[in-house]
Amino acid sequence: xxxxxxxxxxxxxxxxxxxxxxxxxxxxxxxxxxxxxxxxxxxxxxxxxxxxxxxxxxxxxxxxxxxxxxxxxxxxxxxxxxxxxxxxxxxxxxxxxxxxxxxxxxxxxxxxxxxxxxxxxxxxxxxxxxxxxxxxxxxxxxxxxxxxxxxxxxxxxxxxxxxxxxxxxxxxxxxxxxxxxxxxxxxxxxxxxxxxxxxxxxxxxxxxxxxxxxxxxxxxxxxxxxxxxxxxxxxxxxxxxxxxxxxxxxxxxxxxxxxxxxxxxxxxxxxxxxxxxxxxxxxxxxxxxxxxxxxxxxxxxxxxxxxxxxxxxxxxxxxxxxxxxxxxxxxxxxxxxxxxxxxxxxxxxxxxxxxxxxxxxxxxxxxxxxxxxxxxxxxxxxxxxxxxxxxxxxxxxxxxxxxxxxxxxxxxxxxxxxxxxxxxxxxxxxxxxxxxxxxxxxxxxxxxxxxxxxxxxxxxxxxxxxxxxxxxxxxxxxxxxxxxxxxxxxxxxxxxxxxxxxxxxxxxxxxxxxxxxxxxxxxxxxxxxxxxxxxxxxxxxxxxxxxxxxxxxxxxxxxxxxxxxxxxxxxxxxxxxxxxxxxxxxxxxxxxxxxxxxxxxxxxxxxxxxxxxxxxxxxxxxxxxxxxxxxxxxxxxxxxxxxxxxxxxxxxxxxxxxxxxxxxxxxxxxxxxxxxxxxxxxxxxxxxxxxxxxxxxxxxxxxxxxxxxxxxxxxxxxxx
Length: 720
Description:
With 720 residues, the chain is mainly alpha-helical. Helices cover 54% and strands 4% of the residues.
């Protein structure tokens, strides 16, 4: 019996089948929060499947996402209470509660993911040490820290603090890192791979509020906290909360501006749609013309007016074309608004670090005015306040969008987060000598720019001051500044302040070039620099110990001792030679590592420029096309048409689609290898690995279009 083929039934489209998001304010806020965070988690699970560390750093795993949702919902009522007057709900357009939930679901690099680069825990450690020292409890702290293991493996930026030793900083940092290390909870693996992210802040014990104060690691941290002035701790926590709410107040004032603009655009669209309906009613003669009716009814799409079966009047054609132009203008206006608002969301975290003029250029005077006066007075106290609130189970740190951005603001004020100190070849204590092709001691001999004002340095030993107290007893002896400084501090002033004249070039880069400014900072740099590079004595045997050995009784014994000492001396020389060679190799390795790190910093900057909006570079003059450059560049791109157009403009550059054995041979003589932003992940990784083998820096072309990329490459060539 033949089988009867059943036709597959097709369902007619209906309104119920359209997957449209619900209007703002129509879902219970708890349901809305669960839905938004779940959608985000699924989205980033798919996108980050190749790199688990990225997904892990977003904190969308079940443990942390559950706590994030709970905290966001716990704070939502206070947010609505504080800001509903500033940014009220608008039916069908905006819901303050939902906007609060949505903003906290945005993908931001969470605290633990960025900690390995910013070292915010070091800021908290310094605040703790400062507070305990100010109370005269450093001796008690030292006794507590004696029980900590060796902290030499703790990663730390290259900083030197005149207030606390390196060992003290490392020990305190170790205690913070491991304060919950032996709590009776364990981190679960992320996906199939074992969790690789070091959890300093958002560990599982903290996320689930299961901190055990009886375990050794936590007990050690609690002992240190007990030495802190509780009033001082409460004060910085209060300041942190004030800054948190202040930032949100400014954000929602800006949000209200965008809502106002959005309402205006929507009103224009609604008026335009009403106009279409009126026009259709006024043109019954064209009701039989399908093309013309389509133009009027589908105003969101561009239409055509040619080949009409019914000939409309010239006035009607003009009216229809005017409406088409209006539709296009409205569409472009809405697109510009969306792009501007998305840029605001991406860049609002940088506002605390930008001048007001820059914010005004990007988003207008009204928004720039809102952010005037927002600043952090003490970044160290903010680092500690965040840590303290987190350990007290506060919900604010778990509201990621405002808290992560607030952290970026005060972290950006810490000295080591936005600038880098390179101890080797700093042009102060050591510099590169081109004639010798090596690093030599002493400051650089490069002449300073004529723009730099060299200050008049004070002679610290000139006798020119009188002691008023001694003048009363007819003692008019003269004293120098060195006397006064020693009387107040017990310290000697450095003898070579001119050593740091080379640093005036660095000050000039930041616009610091007056004699008064330079003089004050020159003394400051001289004091700190000399203290950091203080010479240390080598421990040796005392004369009494040297004399305590047996005395020879005969010439033969003396000769035997001389021979033994000569052999010992030769052995010491050999050991010293080996040590020098080893240190030389280590110095070379360190120098290479610093060079690699600098290359990677540039690469990270380029990658970040892709995530955020890029500025099109500019050149001082318009070059002739084709333009010839002197630098040896190699560029990789998957787009053949793009490569051809770029080759026509920059014929001196080699363009390739992928890394092969043939073009890999060219890497060794290359100045910079450039990778187009549209290159695949696997292709980019292969190129970067080959470049590292040849010690060639890699840059990213963050633009897709040919003119911007051409300008960037020309600018890079001119700056070399």
